[in-house]
């Protein structure tokens, strides 16, 4: 369903599920800025593939910005204040990115979103992300804000159990998907990226997921 609830921003908002809203093209207007910010970030914290607890490596390369970065290794999945590759804190979330994520969250019905973590995924053809839910954060009251750049993908949107049927959503450059409330723990994933060429990112897709990893939602409440 497409609703024009937000005439001030005149953006089509598609209700994907209870609590999940797709803002088509939200990031497209300032695409150069988004790409420049990520390009600068990855010079300070490089993209790398991480090992999952079972021993395999993810097909997606990742890096992080923010007070907390999501990591995976043989010990498990968790947030870390330092980049294990450098031993240094992750670069801060650039103000532009944090503001855009907060604006998208507010448009989707989640005011007071102040991310302390931004996981950046880089997909090349064939890379995928298996069905999972984002559950390493402290406060599930905060939504997830997920920004797609570059090549299109087939995003798998499931339900609250791993066995729930999945739908395929076509996410393209600039789309922002926000999920929270009753959808916060929905299983989701990304089908293998198909070959293609994007004018800005070539054969890649970048995804940024903004999270409140440790902070309480809405922002301003004391963290744990
Ligand atoms: O790449 C995407 O669109 C999804 C990424 C994701 O689900 C995650 O990083 O947890
Ligand atoms: Mn996820």
TrEMBL record:
The keyword Oxidoreductase applies. One of its GO terms (molecular function) is ferrous iron binding. One of its GO terms (biological process) is oxidative RNA demethylation. Keywords: Dioxygenase, Iron, Metal-binding, Oxidoreductase. InterPro entries: Alkb, AlkB-like, AlkB-like_sf, Oxoglu/Fe-dep_dioxygenase_dom. Transmembrane segments: none annotated. PANTHER family: ALKYLATED DNA REPAIR PROTEIN ALKB-RELATED (PTHR16557), NUCLEIC ACID DIOXYGENASE ALKBH1 (PTHR16557:SF2). This is Dioxygenase. It comes from Comamonas thiooxydans. The lineage of its organism: Bacteria, Pseudomonadati, Pseudomonadota, Betaproteobacteria, Burkholderiales.
């Amino acid at each position: 369903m497409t609703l024009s609830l937000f005439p001030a921003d005149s953006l089509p908002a598609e209700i994907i599920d209870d609590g999940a809203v797709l803002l088509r093209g939200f990031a497209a207007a300032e695409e150069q800025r988004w790409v420049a910010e990520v390009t600068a970030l990855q010079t300070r914290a490089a993209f790398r593939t991480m090992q999952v607890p079972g021993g395999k490596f993810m097909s997606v390369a990742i890096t992080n910005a923010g007070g907390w970065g999501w990591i995976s290794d043989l010990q498990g999945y968790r947030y870390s204040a330092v980049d294990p590759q450098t031993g240094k804190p992750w670069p801060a979330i650039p103000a532009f990115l944090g503001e855009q994520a907060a604006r998208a969250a507010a448009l989707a019905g989640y005011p007071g979103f102040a991310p302390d973590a931004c996981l950046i995924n880089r997909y090349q053809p064939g890379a995928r992300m298996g069905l999972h839910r984002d559950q390493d954060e402290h406060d599930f009251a905060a939504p997830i804000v997920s920004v797609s750049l570059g090549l299109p993908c087939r995003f798998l949107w499931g339900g609250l159990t791993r066995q729930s049927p999945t739908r395929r959503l076509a996410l393209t450059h600039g789309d922002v998907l926000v999920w929270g409330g009753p959808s916060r723990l929905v299983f989701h994933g990304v089908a293998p990226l198909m070959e293609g060429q994007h004018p800005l990112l070539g054969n890649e897709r970048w995804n940024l997921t903004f999270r409140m990893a440790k902070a309480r939602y809405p922002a301003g409440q004391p963290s744990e």
